[in-house]
Amino acid sequence: MANGIGVICIILFWNGEAIMKFSRRQFLNVSGGAVVASCLGRPPSLVGQDRQQQVAKPLDRQLGITTSSLTYQLSPRAKENQLTLLELPRIMRDELGMTVIDLNTSTLASTDPKYLDQVRAAADKAGCVLTNLKMNQPKLDMNSPDTAVRNKALNTYKASIDAASHLGLKWARPLPLVPKPDMKIHVASYRELCEYGAERNVQLLVENYGWMQSDPGSVVKLVDLIGENVAACPDTGNWNSDEIRYEGLKQTFPIAVTCDFKARKLGPRGEHPRYDLKRCFEIGWNSGFRGPWCFEHANRDRKVLFKELLLLREMLQTWMKGAAKQSSGS
Fold first, then answer.
1. Residue 256 CA to chain centroid, in angstroms?
2. Which domain holds residue 36?
3. Alpha helices in 168-296 (DSSP H)
4. Which residues of the chain have pLDDT under 50?
């Protein structure tokens, strides 16, 4: 104990082997300590899956979009034939029939508290939920050996975490770069952000992108190295091959809290030649992941985009209904 502050650590054992460790904060964040029940008598390889399946979450089976899907339609300020972020929740409800909005820093017009209050109020009024902030600011490198460069990135990300906290978001994600980083620096920087986020009730996410796309185990390995206040956000599209994609999703979904369900060019009936969207869904569902599923799909034509987002919504709803029926044995 230092400065009157104690840290409680809870360790769960199976057959004499320590299999999961929680801080007090993490333990209390799991509804009713249900994770303990899911661990008793279960081998280590099934613990994560049990937790996904047995702990009901408010965002289970919820669908939404990442705001990067509206790259061509969103504008910081009102313009002809353009949307603003303040209008998006109503449009999500009335035109797309979805409730989850996963934000990108590029789609926030400002981080001024008054503006953030307006964004949050618009979401609340429409019955939508803001979940995540993808911190995609360009030319930042939290992995740099140069302390000044690294601190600039960390300070920028911390300011974004402040904004995420003000918006009531659950998560924030820094952007992986293309070159593989010095892992010692990378993990230390991530941990600094995770500690900062924990104080503001924001969990940091790891998404497969950049240097991570060639290794199916990259997300799980990094989450394990970081250790605290961190989870996975698998992206169905960001893998260098189908072989890596399906294996990567199989490894990542068991520790996922949200998913970027990315779709490239779609055919008129939802055909997706780039990779198998239903297989991606099934890997997630069979791992115990239930949502939220956030579509990432862009099109310059707003009418076509909305038609395709509705098609994706219908596909996921049909797949979830079928999977749930199969799971129940009915």
1. 7
2. 1-56
3. 183-198, 218-226, 242-252, 277-286
4. 1-54
37/149 same-domain check: no
Residue 182 sits in the same domain as residue 278: yes
Q: Would you state the pLDDT for residue 31?
A: 35
Last residue of a domain, one of 56, 85, 100: 56
| Helix, strand and coil percent figures for the chain, each rounded to 5 | 50, 15, 35
Short-list 278, 270, 283, CA closest to 244: 283
Residue 80 CA, chain-centre distance (Å), reads 32
Tokens of 275: 């990779």
pTM attached to this predicted model = 0.83
Q: Which of 56, 79, 97 is the last residue of a domain?
A: 56
Q: CA-CA-CA-CA torsion for 192, 190, 20, 261, nearest 10 degrees?
A: 140
β-strand pairing of 171-174 with 230-232: unpaired
Q: For the CA atoms of the chain, what is the radius of gyration?
A: 20
Measured CA to CA, the distance from residue 53 to residue 57 in angstroms comes to 10
pLDDT at 326: 87
3-state secondary structure of 117: helix
Q: Please give the DSSP secondary-structure letter assigned to residue 69.
A: G
For residue 56, the model assigns a pLDDT of 60
Tell me, what's the pLDDT at 330? 55
Q: At what angle do helices 277-286 and 302-328 cross, to 10 degrees?
A: 40
Question: How many domains are there within the chain?
Answer: 2
259-262 and 293-296 strand pairing: parallel
pLDDT of residue 55: 59
Residue type, 208: N
